[in-house]
Amino acid sequence: VQLQASGGGLVQAGGSLRLSCVLSGTSFRVNNMGWYRQAPGKQRELVAVISRAGTTNYADSVKGRFTISRDNAKKTVNLQMNSLEPEDTGTYYCNVELYVTGPYWGQGTQVTVSS
Protein backbone atom coordinates (compact mmCIF):
# COMPACT_ATOMS: atom_id res chain seq x y z
CA VAL A 1 0.00 0.00 0.00
CA GLN A 2 1.38 3.39 -1.01
CA LEU A 3 0.11 6.91 -0.52
CA GLN A 4 1.59 9.66 -2.66
CA ALA A 5 0.81 13.19 -1.53
CA SER A 6 1.41 16.35 -3.51
CA GLY A 7 0.47 20.01 -3.64
CA GLY A 8 2.26 21.58 -0.70
CA GLY A 9 4.28 24.74 -0.98
CA LEU A 10 4.86 28.29 0.19
CA VAL A 11 1.99 30.76 0.09
CA GLN A 12 1.18 34.13 1.60
CA ALA A 13 -1.50 34.49 4.22
CA GLY A 14 -4.91 34.63 2.59
CA GLY A 15 -3.80 32.43 -0.27
CA SER A 16 -4.88 28.95 -1.32
CA LEU A 17 -3.35 25.54 -1.86
CA ARG A 18 -4.76 22.22 -2.95
CA LEU A 19 -3.36 18.97 -1.62
CA SER A 20 -3.90 15.63 -3.31
CA CYS A 21 -3.15 12.08 -2.24
CA VAL A 22 -3.32 8.95 -4.38
CA LEU A 23 -3.63 5.46 -2.96
CA SER A 24 -2.09 2.53 -4.82
CA GLY A 25 -1.04 -1.06 -4.23
CA THR A 26 -4.29 -2.43 -2.92
CA SER A 27 -7.60 -3.66 -4.23
CA PHE A 28 -9.29 -3.59 -0.84
CA ARG A 29 -12.19 -1.25 -0.36
CA VAL A 30 -11.28 2.12 1.13
CA ASN A 31 -13.07 3.37 4.23
CA ASN A 32 -12.15 6.74 5.72
CA MET A 33 -9.66 9.06 4.03
CA GLY A 34 -8.24 12.10 5.76
CA TRP A 35 -5.59 14.70 6.29
CA TYR A 36 -3.56 15.38 9.41
CA ARG A 37 -0.92 17.98 10.06
CA GLN A 38 1.98 18.46 12.39
CA ALA A 39 3.60 21.77 13.22
CA PRO A 40 7.12 21.93 14.65
CA GLY A 41 7.08 21.03 18.32
CA LYS A 42 3.43 20.02 18.27
CA GLN A 43 1.52 16.77 18.06
CA ARG A 44 -0.03 15.56 14.86
CA GLU A 45 -3.65 16.65 14.64
CA LEU A 46 -6.64 15.83 12.53
CA VAL A 47 -7.47 18.40 9.87
CA ALA A 48 -10.32 16.74 8.00
CA VAL A 49 -11.71 13.30 7.31
CA ILE A 50 -14.21 11.97 4.79
CA SER A 51 -16.04 8.66 4.83
CA ARG A 52 -16.66 6.50 1.80
CA ALA A 53 -20.22 7.83 1.71
CA GLY A 54 -18.97 11.41 1.76
CA THR A 55 -19.59 12.38 5.36
CA THR A 56 -17.01 14.95 6.43
CA ASN A 57 -15.56 16.12 9.70
CA TYR A 58 -13.25 19.10 10.19
CA ALA A 59 -11.09 20.52 12.91
CA ASP A 60 -12.72 23.65 14.30
CA SER A 61 -9.73 25.74 13.24
CA VAL A 62 -10.26 25.00 9.53
CA LYS A 63 -14.06 24.93 9.26
CA GLY A 64 -15.27 27.24 6.54
CA ARG A 65 -11.80 27.50 4.97
CA PHE A 66 -10.84 23.95 4.03
CA THR A 67 -12.79 21.43 1.96
CA ILE A 68 -12.02 17.73 1.77
CA SER A 69 -13.18 15.61 -1.15
CA ARG A 70 -12.51 12.18 -2.58
CA ASP A 71 -12.82 10.15 -5.74
CA ASN A 72 -13.51 6.52 -4.86
CA ALA A 73 -12.85 5.26 -8.37
CA LYS A 74 -9.45 6.94 -8.53
CA LYS A 75 -8.70 6.29 -4.83
CA THR A 76 -7.74 9.89 -4.27
CA VAL A 77 -8.41 12.39 -1.50
CA ASN A 78 -8.03 16.12 -1.89
CA LEU A 79 -7.86 19.05 0.50
CA GLN A 80 -8.70 22.50 -0.83
CA MET A 81 -7.28 25.07 1.56
CA ASN A 82 -8.44 28.67 1.26
CA SER A 83 -7.82 31.76 3.37
CA LEU A 84 -4.64 30.20 4.68
CA GLU A 85 -3.18 31.52 7.90
CA PRO A 86 0.37 31.29 9.30
CA GLU A 87 -1.03 28.90 11.92
CA ASP A 88 -1.79 26.43 9.12
CA THR A 89 1.93 25.92 8.57
CA GLY A 90 3.09 22.36 9.02
CA THR A 91 3.64 19.01 7.40
CA TYR A 92 0.40 17.56 6.06
CA TYR A 93 -0.11 13.81 5.96
CA CYS A 94 -2.81 11.89 4.18
CA ASN A 95 -4.29 8.96 6.03
CA VAL A 96 -6.33 6.06 4.72
CA GLU A 97 -8.21 3.26 6.41
CA LEU A 98 -9.14 0.18 4.47
CA TYR A 99 -12.04 -2.00 5.55
CA VAL A 100 -9.64 -4.80 6.42
CA THR A 101 -6.36 -3.09 7.33
CA GLY A 102 -4.84 0.24 8.15
CA PRO A 103 -4.48 3.04 8.85
CA TYR A 104 -1.82 3.97 6.32
CA TRP A 105 0.11 7.23 6.13
CA GLY A 106 1.54 9.20 3.25
CA GLN A 107 5.04 10.66 3.29
CA GLY A 108 3.92 14.19 4.19
CA THR A 109 3.92 17.39 2.22
CA GLN A 110 5.07 20.73 3.60
CA VAL A 111 2.75 23.72 3.75
CA THR A 112 4.25 27.05 4.73
CA VAL A 113 2.11 30.17 5.10
CA SER A 114 3.95 33.46 5.42
CA SER A 115 2.47 36.47 7.16
Please tell me about this protein's structure.
A hairpin with a 4-residue loop joins β7 and β8. The chain is globular. The chain has no helices and 11 strands. The protein has 115 residues and is mainly β. The strands form 2 sheets. Strands 2, 4, 5, 6, 9, 10 and 11 form a 7-stranded mixed beta sheet that branches.
Percent range for helical residues?
under 10%
What low-confidence regions span 5 or more consecutive residues with pLDDT below 50?
none
Tell me, what's the shape?
A: globular
What's the total number of strands? Answer: 11
- N-to-C series of helices and strands: EEEEEEEEEEE
Structural class estimated from helices and strands: mainly beta
Count of DSSP-assigned helices: 0
Q: Averaged pLDDT, please?
A: 96
Keywords:
0% helix; 115 residues; mainly beta
Brief synopsis:
The chain has 115 residues and is mainly beta. The protein is 0% helix and 56% strand.
Set down the secondary structure blueprint.
Layout: E1 2-6, E2 9-12, E3 17-24, E4 30-38, E5 45-50, E6 56-58, E7 66-71, E8 76-81, E9 90-98, E10 104-105, E11 109-114
Parallel strand pairs: 2-11
Antiparallel strand pairs: 1-3, 3-8, 4-5, 4-9, 5-6, 7-8, 9-10, 9-11
